[in-house]
Amino acid sequence: MGLTLAEKILSAKAGKEVLPGEIVHVSPDRVMCNDFALQVIRQLRELGEEKPWDPGRIVVVIDHRGPANDAVLAGYHDEIRRYTATHGITFYDVAQGVSHPLMVENGHVRPGDVVIGTDSHSVSYGCLGAFGTGVGNTEMAAIFVTGRIWLKVPQSVKVVLTGRLPVGVYAKDIMLTLIGRLTMDGCTYRAVEYHGDLVGRLQVSERFTLCNLSVELGGKAGMVPPDEITEAYVRGRVREPYTPLRPDPDAVYAQEVRVDAGSLEPLAACPHKVDNVRPVREIRDVRVQQAFVGSCTNGSLDDLRIAAAVVRGKRVAPGVRFIIGPGSRDVFLRALEQGYIQTLVEAGATVSTPGCGACIGQRGALADGEVTIASSSRNSPGRMGSRKAEIYLASPATVAASAVTGVITDPRDVVGGEDPR
Amino acid sequence: MEERITGRAFRCGDDVNTDVIIPGRFLTIVDPDELGGHAFEGMGEEYPARLRERQLVVAGRNFGCGSSREQAATAIKHAGIRVVVAKSFSRLFYRNALNLGLPIVECPEAPDRIAEGDPVTVDFSQGTVEAGGQAYRFPPLPEFLVEMLREGGLVPQLRRIVAERRAARARG
Questions:
Q1: Is the N or the C terminus of chain A less surrounded, counting Cβ atoms within 10 Å?
Q2: CB distance A273–B162 less than 8 Å?
Q3: Which residue of B21, B35, B158, B164 to mutate against A (max A Cβ within 10 Å)?
Q4: Residue B31 domain-assigned?
Q5: Which residues of B touch A360 (CB under 8 A)?
Q6: Which residues of A, range 71-130, sit inside 8 Å of B by Cβ?
């Protein structure tokens, strides 16, 4: 009987073949710690065990809150900086970007790795064929001390994506389709594995969006088996040797879900749940006060290119704040070089510091009664400021189209039949 | 870990997100008791006070979904809640709660029979949730997690590991 990708990776780490339901104790290849590094450091000090088990396997990123807007936060950041410097830990300071794109762009994730992060969107690392998952800060402190973590080997769900994406439809729309269909706990405790000819053509940035949003299905991991596109991406980024693993053809899945891309259309997750999904065309006369393209989910160079293509030569509607949050400093720089930022700012957008930003209500918070359309991942009440605000989630193209018209708009109505891809 | 917990239920629905349990603006709070004062404030400002009158949280499906923030479990525990009963949990909340020594019970049948403020008893030795004169069974946690809960969570367990390590070093 064959193994799924999650079973393959966890078997390799455990040094024996493991099956779903089994508990394995593994040593993560890499751990990522965001602003919760502060809590981890303090817990370690309380334990009297400050030195981490292996500084070379740790990456710390301040992405949730920064640059600091008061002295208390500045002090927290200072504590993190001193700790990482003392122990020789790879550190990305404020404004370098969101941890997940930074991990992937800078070669900290290798195909076949087990990567644990203090953030639920650590599932994004599956875009390179790694097993990435999130934990809380106490569990991260335990990894710093012991170098180990227990994981229950999850069952896997096979998602087969076929066909070609129509104009105006993107990876985000694929995931909103799945989340709407399976609901936000449809894959709880399970790994989601993406297959099919469409996945084979998707770039790493699009695969990143698939894996990233797997946690909105409740998934423990989201993974694309590595292929030539993965290889081409990691070449020049990953410096250490690695062993890419692929699922067996006769692997056993708990469920198989098929989606034909040809029939998809632009979708939005409506307030206040990610699985409250409707076609954008059916959402009529919803005026927005803010539009946001950014976050780990959809803040890539490709996402900024698409947003720029939608707004090129147009103006952001009066009364709309259009915020761009590049996923990383590298994305920001390349978007500048390519002229995307010029196009977006000329149209009336503003650029926010690379980081989590408006997705968590930082620099881009909403007032009571305001409505936003955002390319981020969650629309629970209060996530982006007031709990009396409404959050719609959609692709960067839909967000940009809505910024231009001032109402939630299908991107095909703004660009016509032209493909802004 | 208490073997038998009796109290009144703070009732919530399906898919309760960590953004609602502890809104992001409170995440710079380090003191757990202060966090406890804001538990469920995302539902409205009157909720933390109501929570203080309750000893159990009873929820629907997918409780604690969303971010990895363990502050959601910390806030609930330090608001005085002794156990969370839900039809199902998000995996992150599941781990975080146990790590912090907050007992959780996955019981698909009981929540539908329990209303806000109802008296509920959770009996870990029997593996039952008792409400409205009925007992609903729930499966036991894996033994190593029960052990961790008995120790009070992951931090006390880590303290033991560190102490053992030091003792081993001292022995040479």
A1: N
A2: no
A3: B158
A4: yes
A5: 24
A6: 72-73, 76, 117-120, 122
Q: Is residue B133 part of a domain?
A: yes
Other Cβ atoms less than 10 A from the Cβ of B123: the count is 17
Q: Which residues of A touch B17 (CB under 8 A)?
A: 378, 380, 383
Res. A417: pLDDT tops 70: no
A-B contacts (CB, under 8 Å): 114
- Yes or no, beta carbons of B155 and A43 under 8 Å apart: yes
Q: Is the ipTM of this complex over 0.85?
A: yes
Can you give the C-alpha Rg of chain A in angstroms?
21
Burial class from Cβ neighbours inside 10 Å (0-12, 13-18, 19+) for residue A324 reads: buried
- pLDDT, one tens digit per residue, over B137-167 is 999 888 999 999 999 999 999 999 999 999 9
Question: In one letter, which amino acid is B156?
Answer: P
Buried b (16+ CB within 10 A) or exposed e, A364-390: bbbeeebbbbbbbbbbbbbbbbebebb
User: Given B15, B67, B144, which is nearest A120 (Cβ)?
Assistant: B67
Residue B109 falls within a domain, yes or no? yes
The domain containing residue B96 runs over which residues?
Answer: 4-140
Starting at the edge strand that comes first in sequence, how are the strands of the sheet with A191-195 ordered? A221-223, A191-195, A156-162, A255-260
CATH code of the domain containing B54: 3.20.19.10
The total domain count for chain B is 1
Tell me the per-residue pLDDT of A170-213, one tens digit each, with 9 for 90 and over.
Answer: 999 999 999 999 999 999 999 999 999 999 999 999 999 999 99
Q: Are the Cβ atoms of B28 and A72 closer than 8 angstroms?
A: yes
- Kindly report the nearest CA distance between residue B68 and chain A, in angstroms: 5
* Residue that the structure tokens 């001292």 belong to: B170
Model's pTM, two decimal places?
0.96
Q: Residues with Cβ < 8 Å from A201, sequence gap 6 or more?
A: none
Residue A203 dihedral angles phi and psi, to the nearest 5°: -80, 170
For residue A84, the distance in angstroms to the closest alpha carbon of chain B comes to: 20
Q: What is the pLDDT of residue B7?
A: 98
- Rounded to the nearest angstrom, the minimum Cα separation between A50 and chain B is 11
Chain A residues with CB inside 8 Å of B159's CB? 47
Any domain includes B48: yes
